[in-house]
Design brief:
Layout (H helix, E strand, L loop, with lengths): L1 H10 L4 E2 L14 E2 L6 H14 L2 H8 L7 H16 L13 H14 L9 H16 L2 H9 L6 H11 L17 H12 L5 H5 L5 E4 L8 E5 L9 E2 L2 E10 L2 E9 L7 E4 L2 E4 L40 H6 L16 H15 L11 H24 L7 H14 L1 H7 L4 H13 L5 H17 L3 H13 L6 H10 L7 H12 L12 H11 L18 H11 L4
Antiparallel strand pairs: 1-2, 3-4, 4-6, 5-6, 6-7, 8-9
Length: 565
């Protein structure tokens, strides 16, 4: 334990907080500021020397420098926040800073409008939003008629504005069937891309490289790749990478897989039945003899996806010898594939978009989807919050911070593993022992954990993310326990233990909200969904009276009696 304390002290990212002020639309709860990072003894000595020789005024300027933003940009951001508030996505008082609350509102707007859910507005998305708001503010008989006659009420103005700008006399609307001989699933995607790019579907499929055909899952049927880069940089692109949609054939039809790529070709991907993967283009593909299944084993695939049709790779010089010998027995000894949370959230976002928005407690029909939406929403909040803190650390590059967080997560490996096999109380006691022996103050551990939580989710390192959430929970910030519940429900970063998740959900539901604080109804939704996946068909809210049974006890009773409500 003494050794662990010394290691943690050397890896710590020291953070100090000031008094908490009111939360504005930007969602910033970072006041005071990050006073620096401590990485190794040499840096500690340098920091001490700077403090002895620098006046308080100079230190304040060095560590509290605010990012610059033009007045025009701030005003544009205020208009976005005002518009979101007007259409029912409450982001707080417009302050011109598009922080966590605003990004949550933007995501809900994008889901409602069936735009890609990114949390960041593209130029066209922003124009549609603010134009519809200006229409609503000006009013008039046409606006009143739209609002009163549209099933979405005031939000009907958004749909009308989108159709006027992108549809109407422009792109056609998908009404079933096929186009250009493409399957219905592919045809629907073509219409969606065309609608959000202001081109006609038949013109789109005529563009070279947009539709590419190949048998990507080796089932003898044609699979389809749609590459939006042919439209040029814009709605469907992020930097050099643009959305690539692959439709893999299945006995029931076609399953869609979404990626971001540049210069997409079928050779960049591999599919196993309906699930596709982007290959590591830096690794060569080993060629085997004709008829050998080595010829279909891409080097870019991780070892964990080995199946009966994929044999263990051998050195290239031995490939011909191996294929001439008796075929090896398939190996199923590999560990279960690591689930990517980023990939999972991308798929959740697609379902949310197709459903027309986030699920609510009143209309809860799919508990797994509802919990997935809240998991990914919390992940986004955690990333934003930690990045804002890390940006204020002076003297360290993002890569250095990431490296320190990887080490921090490695120290918590045992505690993370216990979350998948032990009740919450046992896990918390174990993490508290870690905290006590860390040699760090609660403020240092809190700051380090929040930054590393962001790093873990941003880099898809579940060990770092879960370890950080556990430390924050052990420090009394029970709202972060929601994350552990989500991980246990999905089996991401730990074993799938939905029964153990209930204890984490219950404690976080009674705590001060950490994620999406402007949406207090989240707790009720999460509680109801958590009960449903553990046996409740109609989960009732937990009574507020003293001594009332917790929803963990209620679920346990159901398991014991076999009853459903």
């Amino acid at each position: 334990m003494k050794h662990k304390a010394l290691v943690i002290s050397a890896l710590s990212l020291a953070v100090t907080f000031g008094p908490v002020g009111p939360v504005a639309a930007g969602g910033s709860d970072i006041v005071g500021g990050v006073i620096g990072g401590i990485i190794g003894g040499a840096i500690v000595n340098e920091a001490n020397r700077n403090r002895r020789t620098t006046t308080p005024r100079t230190v304040t300027k060095r560590y509290y420098k605010k990012p610059t933003m033009s007045s025009a940009q701030r005003e544009q951001n205020r208009e976005v926040q005002t518009s979101l508030n007007h259409f029912g996505w409450n982001v707080g008082t417009p302050d011109g800073v598009l922080g966590r609350n605003s990004r949550s509102g933007v995501s809900q707007y994008q889901a409602f409008m069936k735009f890609p859910i990114t949390g960041t507005l593209g130029e066209m998305e922003r124009t549609i939003l603010t134009t519809a708001y200006q229409k609503a503010r000006l009013g008039g008989s046409a606006v009143a008629q739209t609002v009163s006659g549209h099933p979405q009420g005031m939000r009907g103005l958004l749909i009308e504005t989108r159709e006027q700008m992108l549809g109407g006399g422009g792109a056609q609307t998908y009404a079933g069937g096929t186009i250009g001989g493409l399957p219905p699933e592919v045809s629907e995607a073509v219409f969606e891309i065309a609608r959000n790019s202001n081109v006609q579907p038949d013109q789109l499929i005529a563009r070279a490289g947009f539709v590419q055909l190949a048998d990507m899952n080796a089932d003898g049927r044609t699979d389809y790749l749609l590459d939006t880069s042919v439209l040029g940089q814009g709605f469907w692109c992020n930097g050099d990478n643009c959305v690539v949609r692959i439709f893999a054939s299945t006995p029931q039809g076609y399953e869609r897989n979404d990626f971001q790529a540049v210069g997409a070709t079928p050779a960049m991907f591999t599919c196993r039945q309906a699930i596709c993967q982007k290959l590591d283009q830096t690794a060569p593909v080993m060629a085997g003899a004709p008829g050998s299944n080595l010829s279909t084993q891409p080097q870019g695939l991780p070892d964990t996806v080995m199946t009966s049709t994929m044999q263990p790779q051998v050195p290239a010089f031995a490939a011909q010898v191996a294929t001439a010998a008796t075929p090896a027995m398939p190996s199923f000894a590999a560990a279960a594939p690591t689930v990517s949370l980023a990939s999972y959230c991308a798929k959740v976002g697609l379902v949310t978009s197709s459903n027309g928005g986030f699920m609510t407690e009143a209309a809860l029909s799919d508990a797994d989807q509802a919990l997935g939406e809240q998991f990914c929403l919390a992940r986004g909040y955690a990333i934003d919050s930690g990045e804002a803190m890390a940006a204020k650390i002076s003297g360290f590059t993002p890569d250095q911070v990431t490296a320190q967080c990887r080490d921090f997560g490695a120290l918590l490996k045992s505690e993370v593993a216990s979350a998948g096999i032990s009740p919450r109380e046992v896990v918390i006691d174990k993490v508290k022992a870690f905290v006590a022996g860390s040699g760090m103050s609660p403020a240092q551990l809190t700051g380090t954990s929040k930054i590393c939580l962001s790093v873990g989710y941003r880099t898809d390192d579940m060990g770092v993310a879960m370890g950080s959430a556990l430390v924050l929970s052990a420090l009394g910030q029970d709202g972060y326990g929601e994350l552990i519940g989500h991980h246990l429900v999905r089996g991401i970063g730990t074993q799938e233990r939905r029964d153990l998740a209930l204890g984490w959900y219950e404690k976080s539901a009674a705590a001060t909200p950490v994620f999406a604080p402007a949406q207090p109804e989240r707790n009720g939704l999460i509680r109801k969904a958590a009960l449903m996946i553990n046996g409740h068909t109609q989960a009732a809210p937990v009574p507020a009276a003293s001594g009332a049974p917790s929803f963990v006890d209620m679920a346990a009773d159901l398991v014991t009696t076999g009853a459903t409500q």
